[in-house]
């Protein structure tokens, strides 16, 4: 049989062999990716869980050599700065995204802003931090010190902004035009149409964008090194240096003190679990919406 | 006209007010990036005045003598990002092929999510993990092995000969590669899905194996997008700060060995910013400006390549 001859030919066998080898390699690549993820999470849990206790949330950071202690001042500092950044970024990002999707659609300004926004999305966060530092350093009447909770919040807000702009733009573009036309045909003013129809339809997606933005800045360290710097004591004064979880983790992890290192792993585990929780739940929301 | 004139006037007033409000905020995004470049350039101007343009290619970093040169950090930045790309590309490629061509449908979503979660982990976590978990293993097993094998080769060997510390340029590159895998994979998956099923079906119809279809149909069809995705990954790796700061070893000066400690632009800034003032601070601002410009150019290139794909 000719088919039999073909199947037995060395060329056919060689091709089959190469195919099997390459396909196995792609599976190996997947395994490599998963191994990294599991390994990192395992390290975090095995080293972070011993630090987990009520004290972590109710005690301030200890001095070197002191036993116990927690990360209360850092957690509060992080929440205040991330919260302020969110309050600044949410209206700006949503309004900018609204222009891109509703008014500008495909004009030159929109194309340029979309382009710049994507660059900003991947820009090194430490340079954004330095920009916030300069903004306060040269005064500009912003008040507060260059190393303060305010400058940290501004830096985080700029890191978060492109995420919100991008998702708002993308989500509004998904709203069917028929809905807009129906509203306008009934005599609805344009701004009302955007609020009552577009925002309402894109609500879930826009919320997802906000949450992802918060998750992103919650673990940001580099911009805070050059702005808020950190504070060894409990402080809610935004015009002074302010503690934050990532910065305390950085300081404690690099120290020779065992207690500090344990706390650093505890904090690292908290941040990662929080960030992964937001990411997974937004995916679940998005999947349910489809 | 059935509408009374006052109603129309009020409506158009609110309409244009809201439109202008969104317009101002769109401009703000544009202004921010201009302001970043402008303010960094202004703060860095002292350095370029005192050190001249030689700042860019001189290998000197002496705070006491006010001598600054960016060559060391620039080389460190490019080297770590280069290593990251070389290691991340085949892995991302394999994952993207598996997810688009081989994986059963029910497995696709969970697998893709797991890989994307790698991108969500904050970079400081990668840094800690790299320093405390990966670096000791590198010092104990990986580096001695590489020195005993590749290190023995003529010429190439010098890049793998050094004191075995675990931390260094090579380790930073490896950690960066893990961080950029999800970004490259995401782009590759998107572009692989753009290949018309008809093309693939015809290749299968001719008797091609899965690999042959990937090699001769999918890859050529998606080349531009794949290059764009790779450059996007490069842009990410160039600007990464915390992960590199933890594991690169933070030493000034050029070194031929990849195992030796070095520094990158971002890690230099992260390490020295707190103690810097005056000329030193300006030198760090100049470094930041260089980094921002490099990443902006690289990311623009990636965007342009990927945009060409969209219009196809």
Automatic annotation (TrEMBL), chain A:
Q: Where are the transmembrane segments?
A: 20-42, 74-98, 119-140, 146-165, 210-234, 262-280
| One annotated Gene Ontology cellular component of this protein | plasma membrane
Broad class of the protein's primary localization: membrane
Gene3D superfamilies according to UniProt: MetI-like
* Superkingdom assignment: Bacteria
Q: Where is the ABC transmembrane type-1 domain?
A: 75-286
Which keywords has UniProt assigned to this entry? Cell membrane, Membrane, Phosphate transport, Transmembrane, Transmembrane helix, Transport
| An example molecular function term from Gene Ontology annotations | phosphate transmembrane transporter activity
Tell whether DNA-binding is among the UniProt keywords: no
Q: Write out the similarity annotation.
A: Belongs to the binding-protein-dependent transport system permease family. CysTW subfamily.
Protein name, entry field: Phosphate transport system permease protein PstA
Species this chain originates from:
Ephemeroptericola cinctiostellae
Question: Taxonomic lineage of this organism?
Answer: Bacteria, Pseudomonadati, Pseudomonadota, Betaproteobacteria, Burkholderiales
From TrEMBL, chain B:
**Recorded topology in the membrane:** Multi-pass membrane protein
Molecular function terms in GO for this entry? Answer: phosphate transmembrane transporter activity
Which UniProt keywords are present, listed alphabetically? Cell inner membrane, Cell membrane, Membrane, Phosphate transport, Transmembrane, Transmembrane helix, Transport
Keyword Transmembrane helix attached: yes
InterPro entries, alphabetized:
MetI-like (IPR000515), MetI-like_sf (IPR035906), Phosphate_PstC (IPR011864), Phosphate_Transport_Permease (IPR051124)
Q: Name one GO biological process term.
A: phosphate ion transport
PROSITE patterns xrefs: ABC_TM1
PANTHER family attached to this UniProt entry: PHOSPHATE TRANSPORT SYSTEM PERMEASE PROTEIN PST (PTHR30425), PHOSPHATE TRANSPORT SYSTEM PERMEASE PROTEIN PSTC (PTHR30425:SF1)
Protein name (database record):
Phosphate transport system permease protein
Question: What organism does the UniProt record list as the source?
Answer: Ephemeroptericola cinctiostellae
Q: What gene name is listed for this protein?
A: pstC
């Amino acid at each position: 049989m000719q088919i039999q001859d073909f199947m037995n030919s060395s060329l056919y066998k060689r091709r089959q062999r190469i195919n099997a080898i390459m396909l196995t390699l792609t599976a190996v690549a997947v395994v490599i990716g998963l191994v990294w993820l599991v390994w990192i999470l395992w390290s975090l849990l095995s080293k972070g869980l011993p630090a987990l206790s009520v004290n972590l949330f109710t005690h301030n950071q200890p001095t070197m050599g002191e036993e116990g202690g927690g990360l209360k001042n850092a957690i509060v500092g992080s929440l205040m700065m991330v919260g302020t950044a969110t309050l600044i970024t949410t209206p700006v990002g949503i309004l900018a995204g609204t222009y891109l999707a509703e008014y500008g659609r495909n004009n030159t300004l929109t194309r340029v802003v979309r382009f710049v926004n994507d660059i900003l999305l991947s820009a090194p966060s430490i340079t954004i931090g330095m920009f916030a530092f300069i903004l306060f350093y040269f005064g500009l009447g912003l008040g507060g010190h260059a190393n303060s909770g305010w400058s940290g919040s501004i830096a985080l807000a700029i890191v978060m902004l492109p995420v919100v702009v991008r998702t708002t733009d993308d989500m509004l573009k998904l709203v069917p035009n028929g809905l807009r036309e129906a509203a306008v045909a009934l005599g609805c003013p344009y701004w009302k149409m955007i609020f009552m129809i577009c925002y309402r339809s894109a609500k879930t997606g826009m919320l997802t964008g906000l949450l992802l933005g918060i998750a992103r800045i919650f673990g940001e360290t580099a911009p805070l090194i050059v702005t808020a710097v950190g504070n060894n004591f409990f402080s809610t004064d935004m015009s002074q240096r302010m503690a934050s979880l990532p910065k305390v983790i950085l300081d404690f992890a690099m120290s020779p003190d065992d207690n500090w290192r344990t706390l650093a792993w505890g904090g690292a585990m908290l941040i990662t679990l929080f960030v992964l929780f937001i990411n997974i739940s937004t995916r679940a929301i998005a999947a349910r919406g489809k | 006209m059935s509408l009374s004139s006052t109603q129309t006037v009020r409506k158009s007033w609110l309409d244009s007010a809201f439109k202008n409000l969104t317009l101002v905020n769109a401009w703000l995004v544009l202004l921010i990036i201009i302001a970043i470049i402008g303010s960094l350039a202004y703060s860095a101007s002292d350095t370029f005045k005192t050190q001249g343009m030689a700042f860019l290619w001189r290998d000197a970093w002496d705070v006491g003598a006010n001598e600054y040169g960016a060559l060391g950090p620039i080389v460190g930045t490019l080297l770590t990002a280069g290593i990251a790309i070389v290691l991340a590309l085949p892995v991302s490629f394999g994952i993207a092929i598996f997810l688009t061509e081989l994986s059963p449908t029910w497995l696709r979503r969970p697998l893709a999510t797991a890989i994307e979660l790698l991108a969500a982990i904050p970079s400081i976590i990668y840094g800690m993990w790299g320093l405390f978990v990966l670096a000791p293993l590198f010092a104990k097993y990986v580096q001695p092995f590489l020195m005993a094998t590749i290190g023995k080769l003529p010429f190439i060997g010098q890049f793998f000969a050094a004191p075995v510390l675990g931390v260094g340029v090579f380790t930073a590159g490896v950690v960066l590669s893990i961080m950029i895998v999800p970004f490259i994979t995401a782009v590759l998956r998107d572009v692989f899905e753009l290949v018309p099923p008809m093309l693939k079906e015809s290749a299968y119809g001719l008797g091609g194996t899965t690999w042959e279809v990937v090699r001769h149909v999918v890859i050529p069809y998606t080349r531009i997008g794949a290059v764009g995705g790779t450059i996007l990954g490069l842009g990410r790796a160039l600007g990464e700060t915390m992960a590199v700061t933890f594991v690169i070893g933070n030493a000034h000066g050029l070194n031929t060995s990849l195992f030796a400690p070095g520094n990158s632009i971002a890690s230099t800034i992260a390490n020295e910013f707190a103690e810097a003032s005056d000329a030193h601070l300006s030198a760090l601002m100049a470094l930041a400006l260089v980094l921002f410009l490099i990443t902006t150019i690289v990311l623009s290139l990636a965007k342009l390549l990927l945009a060409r794909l969209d219009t196809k």
